[in-house]
Amino acid sequence: GDMDNSGSLNAQVLHLVAERIRTKAVFQTHQAKFVTWQFDGEYRGDDCTATLTLGNPDLLGESGEWDVVPPAPAARPGAGGPSAEGCVVPAVILVAHFLQSITSRLVLGGEMVYHRRPGEEGAILTLAGKYTALKWVATLNVGYGGAHASYYHRANEQVSV
Fold it and tell me: What pLDDT, in 10s, does the model give residues 135-152?
């Protein structure tokens, strides 16, 4: 990591848990206050990859965003159990990716992004595909924000389009 003269820190910790499982933690502070942190977990199989990322501004201090769970609507008679009413919950971002090789040339997968912060909560799903031929590669991503396609073609050893 790096620390500047004002005490701000950018740090990464990587840990190879097993041959196919890797974790990473990233921390950032600004003048001795946590700004953000992020934890990643990744699994790499023979024909698939799965990752999970959890990010949150400052769970420990005062610089992050927090929200208080509002009172629940009138409960049904006899409905019991614990209530989250009045609990303080932090803002959070959760991202999950999964890619699976269908054939040696075709890879399909998706990404789900969930976020929660005071007054806002949502999830976005994006589906992806990649086809690799001998001299070209095509990709397609389709999700809430629309679609994105790309194409790469190797004309010869010196020229790629």
Answer: 999 999 999 889 999 999
Q: In whole angstroms, what separates CA 9 from the centre of its chain?
A: 22
**Rounded Cα gap, residues 35 and 61, in angstroms:** 9
Residues 6 or more apart whose CB falls under 8 angstroms from that of 108 comprise 99, 100, 102, 127, 128, 129
CA geometry: angle at 76 spanning 73 and 81, to 5°?
A: 85
Compute CA 26 distance to the chain's CA centroid, rounded to the nearest angstrom. Answer: 13
Reduced to 3 states, what is the DSSP secondary structure of residue 121?
A: strand
pTM > 0.90: yes or no: no
Summarize pLDDT for 82-131 with one digit per residue, the tens. Answer: 545 555 566 788 999 999 999 999 999 999 999 887 788 899 999 999 99
CB of 154 within 8 A of CB of 136? Answer: yes
Instruction: Give CA–CA dist 161/148, Å, rounded.
Output: 17
